[in-house]
Fold these 3 entries.
Entry 1:
Amino acid sequence: MGSASNWFTRAVQGLRSFAYAGEGERPRVGVALGGGFARGISHIGVLRVLEEHEIPIDFIAGTSVGALIAATYASGVSLQEMERRAIDTHFRDFGRWTLSRMGMASNERIEDFLHKFTPANLFSDMKIPLTIVATDLISGESVHFTEGELSPALRASCAYPGLFLPVQYRDRILVDGFLTETVPSPAAKEMGADIVIGVHLEPGLLDTRPRNTIEVISRSFSIIQMAATQSWRAETNVLIEPDVHHILWDDFAKTPILVAAGEAATKDALPQLKAALAGKLAGYTGPERRAVHR
């Protein structure tokens, strides 16, 4: 199945190259989907508008819930199916409470949750090249998964510190990718994208009291992120920020509102996006692109 998928990807890229051969090669577009628990459902709205306006996606990268959306989309699942299932999602679908000094829950169920959408198991099964981002808890560095099994990469990327247990994989202790790449624009650039569309789910600070330990942890990280220098922004050409800060982390029932917020923010960004594509197309002739992407 993996070899067939790779053949399909090469064929699509070949057709794209042929289509643009007469006017200089177009820039390659990468989409970087950030984390945000239930707020990540707004990514569906973003991708829908990109599809409707025929904005090509050559690469896709994801952090945390963005990794789940990216993997599902890259495997070929329709946005309609993703939205249909999202509204019926609950924490128990991907988390299981446990007693541990390292976290409050295990996210082992996320593998079964992914397989509700797709039978894909490997990065090579993807129809769009995919990178999943996690964080090495020892070195403090980003880890970019681009090959092998999807499951450990996805679990690691979604291992929110304090809530989910860290994931031990190949001598590494891994946690949520948002610690190093809240929006995985560096990963999309690394894949070869000339233009990166980053989707940031601004957590904001709700004006209500925290309900539980999870919200204390979440809001604490939000404060850190707001105060910190976010280097991923320098790697982002077009930034889309759906207005979802008022949605609670586990409020999957607000799927229609979340999808609509993603659509609205992407429509607002279309002029900037099309200008970026036009500008890059003017500046990236065939020989120059071959020098960049040899």
Entry 2:
Amino acid sequence: MDYDDVSIGVALSGGATRGMAHIGALKALHDNGIHADMIAGTSIGALVAALYAFGIPIEEMYEHAVELNWLKVSSFSLSRTGLLSNKPIGEMVERFIGDADISQASIPLAIVTTDIATGEKVVLREGNVATAVMASTCVPGIFKPVELNDRLLVDGYLLENVPVTPLKEMGADVIISVNLSARKRYRIPDGIFDIVLNAFDIAVDANVRRGLPISDVVIEPDLFSILDSETANPAVAFFDEGYTATMARLQAIKSMLTKKHREKKHPVWHKVKNWLSTSM
């Protein structure tokens, strides 16, 4: 069925090194003729979303992603606000797409960040792409915040780890979310450091659970079992699991697209149908 009249929004969550699963998910959608009309990303999801929105081929993203490691995306920083700088992430984005503005993306793009000085969610729809991705991937306490437009920006996962509301505001008919934090197993605390990390993760995951109902279809790869295993190449395993989990939700995605297509084709009938179902 032709879904050209249905606008598809894809939300890519944060998830650090598990972000390789996003590339697998996009590959599965692409292989089945499902293409994002708009895309939003938080943290590592912002990096993948930016590259996708600017037309970087999925195969090229895969080739570069398997070679990434912590040292390649960070550098030492003499700052009171962070131990490291994630400037190398911004430089990597510029190598791919140049000194571009978010508004120039071939696919409408939204990048979610957090103003650490005010606690506000800041959704970037314009401005330098590399700077926006740096801000969204800036883990507080690890990387120094990014100063932008009189704001001090850090990782967007603090407030909206699965960025569905920007897509709703952009007018997406169907929102497909990829949540990389599903099936998380919290560590058994062995000291105050573990307790603080658990508290942080629990708070973030609670925000995720509140936002996911806005999505029409949620894809949740099982990535933590890979982390717990002795997989020789976890990046490849993350990609494969992202692809597999998306394929498992393919029928649900097509059903939702078909439903929205029919609603657009026969709007009056569906309004009557919905009225009858709520009145009985």
Entry 3:
Amino acid sequence: MLSLLGTGDSLLRIVEGAFDVEILVRGNEVTISGPDTEVRQVSRIFDEFVKLLERGYELDESLVRGTIDMVRDDAAASPAEVLGDTALSHRGRSIRPKTPGQKTYLDAIRSNTVVFAIGPAGTGKTYLAMAMAVEALRRKEVNRILLTRPAVEAGERLGFLPGTLYEKIDPYLRPLFDALHDMMDAEQLTMLMERGTIEVAPLAYMRGRTLNDSFIVLDEAQNTTAEQMKMFLTRLGFGSKAVVTGDVTQVDLPSGRRSGLRVVRDVLSEIEGVAFAELTGRDVVRHRIVQQIVEAYERYDTGEGTEGGIRQS
């Protein structure tokens, strides 16, 4: 019961605070009182908690709030199935899906050679792909990881920027480095990069290569042209897997250039081993306080604030 309810009933209070119910605990018996719909939802939540505990997971605030959100959304998927999955564990911290859409995405990566993840910012497209890549390297399923993204804003002007090549492209690749530092120790990461086991490079440097036994992640793919997308996909060698991520609503290509990410579905949708994972706003995962900040601004922008909203130009 301590594992189920939390120290000082802390996890129980999170559930009770999220619903209009009263929860009483006597020994090993939990009694829920309140409106029928909410009682059924809370009952399902505790059933999911028990499933997670039976699988050896330790309940924490993140798992509890994730379960509450999924039950409130009336998700068909079992929260225990979704939240009990793990992409990668590092120093006691697990990187796991937090929505049914993210769980479907991870399953697609496991069972396909090429996966396209399309969705808005904050849905974990790149982060989860990189976690799967690091896990595949640990399991020796691949011999190397290659992370790439187009440096669209730099265009043909890289040669005019000061510094070495990596100093010029660092701003475009920095988000990938930051994610890697979350997933492995700095010394190990440095060693693997020096050996070439992990490579982070701009898309332009993929041309002419064949990548065998590799896990390749192409980020910000909405900023590739159709020609660049074809070039990237044909780099795939034996024993390799590729994940392509992007948001088709955030294309930074010059006017008149069509995004390769928009074209590729029409070209490859019938090929076995190629999957498309669609993530939506329901898969956006934010810190609780960020969610509250966003909601507060939305209320303010609709005129509920004292200034009648924030003017945008």
